[in-house]
Design a protein that fits this description.
Elements (H helix, E strand, L loop, with lengths): L3 E9 L7 H18 L3 E7 L5 H13 L2 E6 L15 E4 L8 H7 L2 E5 L3 H17 L5 E4 L7
Parallel strand pairs: 1-2, 1-5, 2-3, 3-4, 5-6
């Protein structure tokens, strides 16, 4: 039996100075809905490969729900202090953070944004443009969470 692959990109804060409890709860509820919605599909959760912030929460929950985890980032992710999350699949594009954004957006079918700074918002704009150009049924889900940093 051949299963459809549905790819959900997850972006948001990479640093840990945000309301992690609310972010976790939001993503947990969303992933539970995805599990129920896509009973005949393989779900990939695609995020920034780092072992901190929203990517870490997304990967931990993806593991909980049995989704495939994909680390999609620039090679700079290999040098971050928090390290990388042990994902199922790694895709590295470009040298510095942000250089992978266009290819990341091309790779995913849907996007979930939980808070986030300039790069997350840039990727959300790229995704919105992709939806408008392709006129497809892609889904964008956005939630704000409190930021405690400077």
């Amino acid at each position: 039996m051949k299963y459809e692959i549905v790819r959900y990109g997850v972006v948001g804060f990479s640093k840990n100075k945000f309301d992690k409890k609310t972010a976790y709860k939001l993503l947990d509820n969303l992933f539970k809905e995805l599990k129920e919605k896509h009973t005949d599909a393989i779900i990939e959760v695609v995020s920034g490969y780092t072992n901190s912030g929203i990517p870490k929460i997304a990967y931990e929950l993806a593991d909980k729900y049995g989704f495939i985890t994909v680390g999609f980032s620039a090679k700079q992710a290999l040098k971050v202090v928090s390290g990388t999350y042990p994902v199922s699949k790694v895709i590295l594009k470009g040298e510095k953070f942000g250089e992978e954004s266009a290819e990341f957006i091309s790779y995913i079918d849907h996007l979930i944004r939980i808070g986030g700074g300039p790069q997350s918002r840039k990727e959300t704009k790229l995704f919105t443009d992709k939806i408008l150009i392709k006129k497809n049924d892609s889904i964008l889900i956005e939630h704000e969470v409190d930021w405690y940093g400077e």
